[in-house]
Amino acid sequence: EEQLVQSGAEVKKSGESLKISCKGSGYNFAKYWIGWVRQRPDKGLEWMAIIYPADSDTRYSPSFQGRVTISVDNSISTAYLRWSSLRASDSALYYCARGLLPDLWGLGTLVTVSP
Amino acid sequence: QSALTQPPSVSGSPGQSVTVSCTGTSSDVGSFNRVSWYQQPPGAAPKRIIYGVRDRPSGVPDRFSGSKSGNTASLTISGLQPEDEADYYCCSYTNTFTYVFGTGTKVTVL
Fold it and tell me: What are B14-29's pLDDT values in tens digits?
């Protein structure tokens, strides 16, 4: 079964760093783009960034460029999203999703950042 | 890069048809046939129901259909069912090699 399994909920303070993960299984991880989507409480979906695991080609939304870093570890079929300095406004549910127009989604990782 | 524009809400009675619009620009929807639609029930992850403007993944009922004219893509739900009540989002490729979602539409079954 194809699936994306995301890391658990995180509670952090402003200024702290954070890295969340997304492990793909049941398919050839390296051959599909994988990205991250933000959803703030009671708000819409926001496309953040995407990476092609086979060659690490990356694309960032201008809204998130410089704020987050997307990466992968092909040896364990896992994608990551990293913040070096969190803000309260980063509090949201973060989905990882496979494909340029995603066809497979994880269940989300809830990130809560206190001021 | 602004979000694509969708109506905040649409509603219809069971069996009726409803259409959700998704308006972009010549930099995204208008220039590419890489438009998808997602259904997100409350508390659940999104599910892709349309890709490539009008193609349906296997398992998606044929009452869901997609189209595009100029800078506007549309999702039509024919024969609305109670289980169709959810938030719907469009998504398009852009000329900056990135993607952008729509603002989202809540579909209510009366």
Answer: 999 999 999 999 999 9
Q: Which residue has the tokens 């979602």?
A: B101
Q: Strand B64-69's sheet: what is its strand order?
A: B18-23, B72-77, B64-69
- Asked whether the beta carbons of A98 and A33 are under 8 A apart, the reply is yes
Neighbours of B15 (CB within 10 A): 10
Q: Are strands A109-114 and A10-13 parallel, antiparallel or unpaired?
A: parallel
Inter-chain CB proximity B1 and A50 less than 8 Å:
no
Give the count of alpha carbons within 13 A of B81, CB side only. 6
**First-to-last C-alpha distance (Å) of chain B:** 35
Contact between residue B28 and residue B22 where contact means Cβ atoms under 8 Å apart? no
Q: CA-CA distance, B65 to B38, in Å (whole number)?
A: 12
d(CA B56, CA B50): 5
Q: Are B35 and B68 in contact (CB under 8 A)?
A: yes
Contacts of B68 in chain A (CB under 8 A): none
Is the CB of A95 inside 8 Å of chain B's CB atoms? yes
**Tens of pLDDT, residues B49-105:** 999 999 999 999 999 999 999 999 999 999 999 999 999 999 999 998 899 999 999
The reply to whether residue A44 touches residue B102, judged by beta carbons under 8 angstroms, is yes
Are B56 and B1 spatial neighbours (Cβ–Cβ below 8 Å)? no
- B101: distance to nearest CA of chain A, Å? 6
